[in-house]
Amino acid sequence: MPVPHRMPPNVPAPAGRVRRRAVLVGGAVAAACGVAMARQAPLLLRFSHVVAPDTPKGQMALRLQALLHERSGGRIRVEIYPDSQLWGDDDEMEALRLGAVEMLAPSLSKFGMAGVPEFEVFDLPFLFRDLAQVRRVTQGRVGRELLERLGRQQMVGLGFLDNGFKQMSAHRPLRRPADFAGLRVRVQASQVLGAQMRALGARPVVLPFGETQRALATGVVDAAENPLSNYLTQQLAPLQPHVTLTQHGYLGYAVVTHPRWWEHLGRADRALVRQALDEALQHGNRLAAGLDQAALASLRTQPGVQVHMLGATNRDALRQAVQPVVEQFRRGVGPELLDAVHGAIGDAA
Q1: pLDDT reading at 21 higher than 80
Q2: Could you write out the DSSP letters of every residue in 58-91?
Q3: What does pTM read for this prediction?
């Protein structure tokens, strides 16, 4: 606005005029922002997963839903489909590629069969001692590089989520390699997991998670490996009364979306989804950290369930029995990744 000729140069305008001008400018900016927000279309994010809502993954998805609803004023709507209601283990990744769902959190085992075999490093038996060691890998350079590799298969890796360590359930205790002989064990579609069961003398049977309960009930399989939270939420106790605390392997997830959907988001929405997801993952990981002990305490009170500990001698025997699987992975994928994982664990120890 030009300075009136009647006012000498370098003399400030009266305070009242400055305030009126600020109000006008501020009102114009606010109106423009309001119009911009009004023009933003509603955004739908369909999140499909295969486990129950009261698991770490289920709770993480619910937290993401709540955060995005709150911070977008309801404009971003997250629809959650748990328990394989929308897509299951066999078809969820294809659904993502086809745009039939926007976000998944598959178990890390699934990415090997999807063309990124490096992710099967997480399936290696007795690799991690606890969740702290896992997070030194997933939250560091190795984890970032693994997520980047998902781009080879048209997926955007957004973060890792813990579930916990797997224990064995069956009709009998499974403490020694000889106890596994002849058993049909449900596993995920992972070459490492299949080789591990064969090394123990068992027969791996690949089945979607949603079919595990029925397969155990009908005798299609004799045993299964699950974190205790999955054992409880899938109500496996009547079918598998013996739980052996082998803690032989880690089960975690990677949250992924499709590049087409991710790039379609505006910069502000992408940042909003990213921040909300990071917070939701932290929430899910906090739950996972305490869930094993709570689940174990619950199991000990359930009638008919027998919990078996694994002594040091038996643990060493199981570890020795599956060691060829580790060497096979090292030869197949190359030593660099496994060395990097061991380095991440050792450097922070």
Answers
A1: no
A2: HHHHHHHHHHHHHHTTT-EEEEEE-TTSS--TTT
A3: 0.84
Decide if 76 contacts 272 (C-beta within 8 A).
Answer: yes
Mean pLDDT for all residues in the chain: 88
Instruction: Report the distance separating Cα 144 and Cα 252, nearest Å.
Output: 15
Supply 124's token pair: 């290696």
Q: Report CA 343 to chain centroid distance, whole Å.
A: 23
Provide the sign of the torsion angle of the four alpha carbons 60, 61, 67, 68, taken in this order. Answer: positive
| DSSP count for the chain of H helices, then E strands | 13, 9
Q: Evaluate whether 84 touches 50 at the Cβ level (below 8 Å).
A: yes
State both tokens at 72: 């977008």
Contacts of 90 (CB under 8 A, 6+ apart): 208
C-alpha dihedral sign at 121, 205, 291, 106: positive
**Cβ distance 29 to 36 under 8 Å?**
no
Residue 124 is predicted with a pLDDT of 97
Phi then psi for 310, rounded to 5 degrees? Answer: -120, 110
Residue position matching structure tokens 């955004």: 43
